[in-house]
Amino acid sequence: MKRFAQYLAVLAKTNALGKQVDWLFYPGMLQESRAKWWDDFAWRPKAHEGVDICFYRQGQEKITPLAKDTRVPAMDKGLILNRCEDFLGESLVITHGKIDDDFPRVVLVYSHLEIDKTLVPGNWVEKGEIIARLFDTGKKQSKLLSHLHLSCIELMDKIPLEDLNWKLFPDRKKINLINPVFL
Ligand SMILES: [Zn+2]
Q1: Cα(110) to centroid of ligand 1, in Å?
Q2: pLDDT tens, position by position, for the chain (183 residues)?
Q3: Residue 145 alpha carbon to ligand 1 centre in Å
Q4: Domain count of the chain?
Q5: Cα angle value 146/47/109 (rounded, 5°)
Q6: Predicted model pTM
Q7: Quick one: 26 and 108 in the same domain?
């Protein structure tokens, strides 16, 4: 819980959102929710595999979505294991933990991003380093607002790094989801 709260504070600071920022989450933005928080507010095709970060409020001001070019910092020091496409933009797969026998146990997936070409697997990132900007969903005529999706994934087995992607992440037989909110 502490790491997630600290991360939100860093996200606010990095993007100069203000001093008294509250973050707001609709139920559909939370892990395992079947609800959509956009468009027709109907149902997702499958339960949400992470948490969506989008809405905040500065003091008493009105609720605002993150701007489409919001800068995304790394939660901790970590090693980039893969970058892959997601249904909006790109995802960055980073392990912030120990790597035993070249096998990461837990990875953090930052999704719906525009990532600089120079950030490639094998690169280390520092805590708070800007790793991407949010994907501009207007480019795909998506009804979704630009937002940061975070998934925390426990790997059950040794998996080739290039297979750490959105074919694998929804497969509950091969991975365990950890709720990022409780990090
Ligand atoms: Zn999401």
Answers
A1: 10
A2: 799 999 999 999 999 999 899 999 999 999 999 999 998 999 999 999 999 999 999 988 999 999 999 999 999 999 999 999 999 999 999 998 776 666 778 999 999 999 999 999 999 999 999 999 999 999 988 899 999 999 999 998 889 999 999 999 999 999 999 999 999
A3: 11
A4: 2
A5: 50
A6: 0.95
A7: no
CA–centroid distance, 33 to ligand 1, in Å, is: 10
Count other C-beta atoms under 10 Å from residue 79's C-beta: 17
Task: Give the distance (Å) from ligand 1 centre to CA of residue 90.
Answer: 13
Q: At which of 26, 48, 65 does a domain end? A: 65
Residues at Cβ < 5 Å from ligand 1 ion: 52, 149
Please give the helix or strand (H or E) that residue 103 lies within, else none.
strand 103-104
Distance (Å) from CA 149 to ligand 1 centroid: 5
Domain that holds residue 32: 2-65
Return the half-sphere exposure (C-beta side, CA atoms, 13 A cut-off) of residue 79.
Answer: 12
Spacing, Cα 180 to ligand 1 middle (Å): 12
